[in-house]
Specification:
39% of the residues lie in helices and 13% in strands. It has 376 residues and is of the alpha/beta class. β5, α6 and β6 form a beta-alpha-beta unit. α8 crosses α12 and α9 packs across α12. The protein is globular and about 65 Å long. It starts with a strand and ends with a helix. The relative contact order is 0.16.
Length: 376
């Protein structure tokens, strides 16, 4: 969109042109159903097989361990609801995406606190792990403040204290920035979503490692080796694979460039907007996340002013008025309710430019000052 500085990449990214080009033939002349037996069906099935291999390389697993889904929420829900019920226990951190947190709470799970930077309390985790635990879910990167969790240490604790447990990680926000193949190597279940790294919406993948306890949630057609039934979204899967391939190929350069832009943005806001508080330790975050809270304003009003001047951002899950609860993530890291009301998530991506940062630094501090003077 001309004249727009898009700083909401954690919500969704623009599709890569290469991913669009990859999917188009499967929306037109190559429209076969891969579950069939004729030539057009076989063509679609071959495309699925190729995409599965690309995703397996990107995620650090065998092709047969890739299960195609509709996105991160389905992957997370499948992991949690697929764990045994009855007397078994399930565990997650206090700052999980609601796609994990809500089903864990619904099932009476154990919630582990985090420190003020958003890092899981490993001592508290150790204290809730026992032989009754069947599932532990700890996201690799938080979707709101960008904190990277020590997943390797989590995996060691789980293997030692809860040997029956399956370890799941929501890697949806991690994949654009981190080597998920390595960092999530100790997890049995790994969820990703294509639209977070330049692919289309409505398609994702769940790694289900061989031998992991897993109960399918979507049955009836036998697709994905009976682990997720339903006609494949071939076009979306092919596009996701191409976006994943390019993301891995370009990740190092993107992280270095975007990290510099993020630092300039965060430092600029801290220097020019009094009463700005950066959420968490920047050194423990992914490169694309700049999360701040402003004293004495409300996010809803700020977002309105920013959009008027071409800045598209998010308050994430933070409250927009005194009648709503603050973000569960900010509450978990100890941000006071009044300060959490003024939160702003500025998430950068591969398409972010220096001009976008210049515009944000020119617009945001005066907007914050204006709201304070108006009594936001």
């Amino acid at each position: 969109m001309p004249g727009i500085a898009y700083l909401d990449n954690a919500a969704t990214t623009a599709m890569r042109p290469e991913a669009v080009a990859a999917m188009l033939p499967f929306l037109t002349e190559r429209f076969g159903n891969p579950s069939g037996a004729h030539a057009m069906a076989r063509d679609a099935r071959l495309a699925l097989d190729d995409a599965r291999e690309v995703l397996a390389d990107a995620l650090g697993c065998h092709p047969g361990e890739v299960v195609f889904t509709s996105g991160g929420t389905e992957g997370d829900n499948t992991a949690v609801f697929g764990a045994p019920s009855g007397g078994a226990a399930i565990v997650c951190s206090a700052i999980e995406h609601h796609a994990v947190l809500h089903p864990v709470q619904d099932r009476g799970g154990r919630i582990v606190p985090v420190d003020p930077d958003g890092l899981i309390d490993l001592d508290a985790l150790a204290g809730v792990l026992d032989k009754q635990v069947e599932l532990v879910s700890v996201m690799l990167v938080n979707n709101e403040i960008g904190t990277i969790q020590p997943l390797e240490a989590v995996a060691e604790l789980v293997r030692d204290r809860a040997p029956r447990a399956v370890l799941h990680t929501d890697a949806v926000q991690a994949f654009p920035w981190l080597d998920v193949a390595t960092l999530a190597g100790g997890a049995d279940l790994v969820a990703v979503s294509a639209h977070k790294f330049g692919g289309p919406k409505g398609v994702g993948a769940l790694v289900v490692r061989e031998g992991a306890s897993f109960t399918p949630r979507q049955v009836g057609g036998g697709q994905e080796r009976d682990r997720r039934s339903g006609t494949h979204n071939v076009a979306g899967i092919v596009a996701m694979a191409e976006a994943a391939r390019l993301t891995v190929e370009e990740r190092k350069a993107t992280v270095e460039r975007v990290g510099r832009l993020r630092d300039r943005l965060a430092d600029g806001l801290l220097a020019t907007a009094p009463g700005t508080h950066e959420s968490g330790d920047r050194r423990a975050k992914v490169a694309g996340c700049c999360h701040v809270c402003f004293e004495d304003i409300e996010s809803e009003a700020l977002l309105f002013l920013l959009e008027e001047q071409g800045i598209l951002a998010s308050a994430a899950a933070s409250c927009a008025s005194g009648a709503q609860d603050p973000s569960h993530v900010l509450a978990a890291i100890g941000v006071p309710r009044a300060l959490a009301r003024g939160s702003l998530r500025l998430s950068l991506g591969p398409t972010t430019t220096g001009d976008d940062i210049d515009r944000a630094l020119a617009v945001i501090p005066p907007a914050v000052d204006r709201l304070r003077r108006l009594g936001s």
